[in-house]
Amino acid sequence: MKVLLVGNGAREHAIAERLAEDCELYTVMSKKNPAISQLSKQHWVCDIENPSEITKAVEGIDFDLGFSSPDATLAAGVSDALAKAGISMASPSKDAARIEWDKGFMRKLMDEYKIPGAPKHKLVNSLEEAARIINNYGSVAIKPLGLTGGKGVRVSGDHFTNISETVHYAEELIKKDGLVLIEEKLVGEEFTLQAFCDGTRICFMPPVQDHKRAFTGDKGPNTGGMGAYSSGKLLPFMLESELEAAQNIMRSTIHAMKKNQTPFVGILYGQFILTANGIRLIEFNARFGDPEAMNVLALLKDQLSDIFLSMADGQLDNANFSDESTVVKYLVPEGYPTKPVKDVAVTIDTRSIESCGAKIYYASVYEKGGHILTTNSRSFGILGKSTTLANAEKIAEQGCKFVHGPVWHRSDIGTKKLTDSRVSHMAFLRDKS
Ligand code: AMP
Ligand code: GLY
């Protein structure tokens, strides 16, 4: 089977690895990822947000299946262009991916179809209205509507110390975009739930908790994600009924998307927060998470290509996952995220990584003169998998030691100390309510 994959991060390396198990893999990348290119029968480097460049590059090959992975490619209509070129696509159309690239659309869909789990929210186009809502809600999240690489949302307490700073940011966004989304601030534990969708049916993957803050103890600026863990069917701080509530929100959303004439075929990613008052939905993405893809794909017992094919055909049946735990730690360049050192060589002791049971996924690095060099983004995801979370963490931590050079990682991700603190945070919030 010939499969076309668009994208070149660690998330796509994990997808490529699973697809290459039983398919002939072809890849389109914005920068050559040395590991993905090795897995590919053929690869092309071009502007992956330009659908016609992609269709031109891959013309002449009869693909059985296609998957466009990064959010910006979906918003640019890459799935649509490849579908038009005759490829069966397992990733969402531009209209379906709107659930990610237009937060206003997402909240309106939830309102219209009475999908539970939305925080109090308001789409606002005037400064007076923004000031009124901010004063009314008290603590808020101020959100631009479009894609911002996770860096556009600002929250009271974290980014604003007073109302006037908050109103000022809302004003800045209204001036830029004409509209801003204001939500009540939610307090709790965040987690990710991803699912395979075929437009009608949905199959859930195990829940994962990502770590957005740069430094140990969840301090410092937000990043693309410093690492994530999964611990089987549930995360340590959640109850089964709470996971089911999140699943219901996603199931209802897939039904609503179908009724809305924008059926969702692809990976639906729910970013949830468990609060003292139950589950709330923070946002939807129309793709796998990065790093969360590495956690779940390591646990998938079925062939990814079979699941993708069934999604593209509207015949999704089941997806089976092992109950093991996973920990992914991202190695990032020194100085990341504010002043990353780029174009610096790192050496990877692949054999030692393998022999300690870890796996390495290449993110934003490139090859020059036989060396692997850093960029200003995350460099490698190191995965540990085991029957216990403690062991998975140990394996990932050990694996990190075998990449030599100016890179660092958060050593607390997946540790008992940190996961225990999540459990006690939730216990505290539940007690208080
Ligand atoms: P988003 O881009 O919507 O995922 O938001 C980025 C981050 O901002 C989330 O992962 C949360 O940590 C935070 N955030 C977003 N919305 C809210 C909210 N309503 N209350 C509290 N924090 C939020
Ligand atoms: N890990 C966060 C994301 O992929 O959006």
What can you see in these coordinates?
There is one protein chain. The chain is of the alpha+beta class and about 425 residues long. The protein has 3 domains: about 1-90, Rossmann fold (3-Layer(aba) Sandwich); about 120-185, Dna Ligase, domain 1 (2-Layer Sandwich); about 190-420, ATP-grasp fold, B domain (D-amino Acid Aminotransferase, Chain A, domain 1, 2-Layer Sandwich), CATH 3.30.470.20. About 35% of the residues lie in helices and about 25% in strands. It has 15 helices and 24 strands. It has helices at about 10-20, 35-40, 50-60, 70-75, 80-85, 95-100, 105-110, 125-135, 165-175, 240-260, 290-295, 305-310, 350-355, 390-400, 415-430, and strands at about 1-5, 25-30, 40-45, 65-70, 120-125, 140-145, 155, 180-185, 190-200, 200-205, 210, 215, 220, 225-230, 265-275, 280-285, 325-335, 345-350, 360, 365-370, 370-375, 380-385, 405, 405-410. Strands 11, 14, 17, 19, 22 and 24 form a 6-stranded antiparallel sheet that branches. A 4-stranded parallel sheet has the order 3-2-1-4, sandwiched between helices. A hairpin with a 2-residue loop joins strand 15 and strand 16. Helix 3 (about 50-60) packs across helix 5. It is globular, with a radius of gyration of 21 Å. The chain starts with a strand and ends with a helix. About 50% of the residues are buried. The mean pLDDT is about 95. Adenosine monophosphate binds near residues 119, 150, 212, 271 and 282. Glycine (GLY) binds near residues 210, 225, 289 and 292.
